Amino acid sequence: MLPPKKTIGIIGGGQLGKMLIEAGQPWNIRYNILEQDNAPAKDIANHYIVGSLQDADKIKALAKLSDVLTYEIEHINTEALLELEAQGHKIIPSPKILSIIQDKGLQKLFFKQHNIPSSPFELVEHVSEWPQKMANLKGQKVAAKLRKGGYDGKGVELVNKADIEQGQIPFDGPVVLEEFVENAIELSVIVARNEAGDVKTFPTVEMAFDPKANLVDILFAPANISQAIDTQAKSIAQSCIEHLNGVGIFAVEMFLNQSGEVLVNEIAPRPHNSGHHTIEACYTSQYEQLNRILLGMPLGDTQLIQASAMMNILGFENVSGPYEMTGLEHILNLPGVFVHLYNKAETKPMRKMGHITIMGQDLHEVMQKLQTVKQHLGMKAAS
Amino acid sequence: MLPPKKTIGIIGGGQLGKMLIEAGQPWNIRYNILEQDNAPAKDIANHYIVGSLQDADKIKALAKLSDVLTYEIEHINTEALLELEAQGHKIIPSPKILSIIQDKGLQKLFFKQHNIPSSPFELVEHVSEWPQKMANLKGQKVAAKLRKGGYDGKGVELVNKADIEQGQIPFDGPVVLEEFVENAIELSVIVARNEAGDVKTFPTVEMAFDPKANLVDILFAPANISQAIDTQAKSIAQSCIEHLNGVGIFAVEMFLNQSGEVLVNEIAPRPHNSGHHTIEACYTSQYEQLNRILLGMPLGDTQLIQASAMMNILGFENVSGPYEMTGLEHILNLPGVFVHLYNKAETKPMRKMGHITIMGQDLHEVMQKLQTVKQHLGMKAAS
């Protein structure tokens, strides 16, 4: 029977979990979540286990109540998931993949092993090794990433070699140092792969980052790239997931460098910020696609219906705590503009509070609406 | 603040209520519902009052817990709502409008009073009056409708004058008899009007009825009509709602007769079957639009993104009780095909169990996909 009457357990109840649940409601899918108190998804989950994402007992309790488990964040107790998988619980994507992805060093080794194009790197265990390892990389700047625990721009620093030589070392845990890709265009391809091995890629998107926040601010779909680059990006992204033998939804973030080469940056084994626009702009959203995969249903068509942009609503610099959005009365007047709010009671600077998707006949029309959105969107402390 | 943190109370928890709630989740709107046990919306409402839609006490309890009330069905306790409105509770649409609409005789008198084109009619109080009143109407057939209580094709009969003269009278309550519009094309325009008096119409749709079920089976948007007829249909629909001073979402069902005249059939003061496709096919759905109106937000743009069709999934003739849908694995493979299931545990012949929206570049592409959908969709008793 399709859709099957099954219960999905989600480790994490943030905005990605919330939107996964929203996507499942036309099919009456049931969801359990595990999350700290006051999660964005709390009001719409059918059952809510309050607890730490590291708590093996809570994860096992979630598994017991669910037909299949997934996760919407990487920083969770992988050992507990490996144990559950060994006992026969269905976990998508497999925690074996999560073990690789949640360690940015292992990710880079995986790319190297499978000849997946990616920028040269060095692994560093101790602070003392930094200058020597860094010297093996070209350029004046190096991207330094904590191997584990980074999220939403935290745990990633762009450093100057000169500063490192003077002892200004930002992290003291195990780190991966990568050659910095100068003036790169950042691309992302979301890949869906099911248990039968069927694969579909979503249209390539182009990301524009806010240098202050170090996380994606605006993205455009389709990306403004040649057909050849587009094909290359999709092919590389698909090959990553096939080499991982991955089942689920994966975001493959890539750099297009000035020589026209596509280099993989990182993989996320879950729905991703660079796929929010798919809710309205594609026939099948990344969230519906994951539901299909979790329930053993056929993959949906991923084509783009119209040109689109997605803008994160980030917490404003000067507001913390309870807040109000302002200007939405102007934004909601625009045709083809969709506002998603993440049910967060409090804001802080740069926190992801929601997103806005903009659709139009072409990117020119989309950009015009985007300007109006940016002009009006505001945030203030709650009165 | 937009969207405001308000709670909407819905009288009725059927599929229309369910889809209204689904539309509000990206904005974290809270919903209370009043419905008999096992309502389609039960799993996704924030609070669920179990009771009859006629129970004044339950309706008052719902009002007490909600900032604004709406309803997704006409057959409810209007007196209780009139009382609540007089006490200052916000009810959208006003129960004064509901009092007119839920009596098909008053509806016809309203059309006549405001020169809204509609087929000639007679009101009948007693069975004895039928032959005489019927003689005032042209044609061999008459559409006979119970003034109150009809729904989804029940309480409506197409009768032959000859049968009536022989005493075969189908209803014995107060009835409206209408001249039957021969070979009519059935159109529907959904009208949104907010408290500020702003009005927007959704694109005109064309309905194809299943003669067995007497309720809409398939609709197409855009309707295959001339620009002039389209403009006329929208103008008449808008004028109906303005004359009613209606605030809310209203479906205006119309006949296009063989002379090219547009005649109003009936108005529904709620989201309507003929607007399900707007969830995916329009920038703003009828459900989001009603949420906007209920919360005092600006009306959204109603333009059609692509050509579309909507097909009701009706309970199959030979299946009753617990059931399974079959063939969905083929249907879900089609691009631009969206399946909505109404969370009903049991089927019966012709019961509305869900709907399927189909989008495409043009109606030709949509029709091709529709054929594939019809070919595969099946239903069987649960194994």
Would you mind describing this structure in some detail?
The structure is a homodimer of 383-residue chains. Chain A has 383 residues and is α+β, with helices and mostly antiparallel strands. Helices cover 28% and strands 30% of the residues of chain A. Chain A contains 12 helices and 20 strands. The first copy, chain A, has helices at residues 15-24, 56-65, 78-86, 95-101, 104-113, 130-135, 161-165, 227-244, 278-281, 286-294, 328-331, 363-376, and strands spanning 7-11, 30-35, 47-50, 68-71, 121-124, 141-146, 156-160, 175-179, 185-193, 199-201, 205-210, 215-221, 248-256, 262-268, 307-314, 321-326, 337-341, 346-347, 352-360, 378-381. In chain A, β9 and β10 (199-201) form a beta hairpin. The longest helix of chain A has 18 residues, at 227-244. Chain A is globular, with a radius of gyration of 21 Å. In chain A, 49% of the residues are buried. The model of chain A has no long low-confidence stretch (mean pLDDT 94). The A-B interface holds A 1-3, 18, 22, 25-28, 30, 43-44, 46, 283, 292, 297-298, 300-301, 303, 305-306, 324-326, 328-329, 332-336, 338-341, 343, 359 and B 1-3, 18, 22, 25-28, 30, 43-44, 46, 283, 292, 297-298, 300-301, 303, 305-306, 324-326, 328-329, 332-336, 338-341, 343, 359.
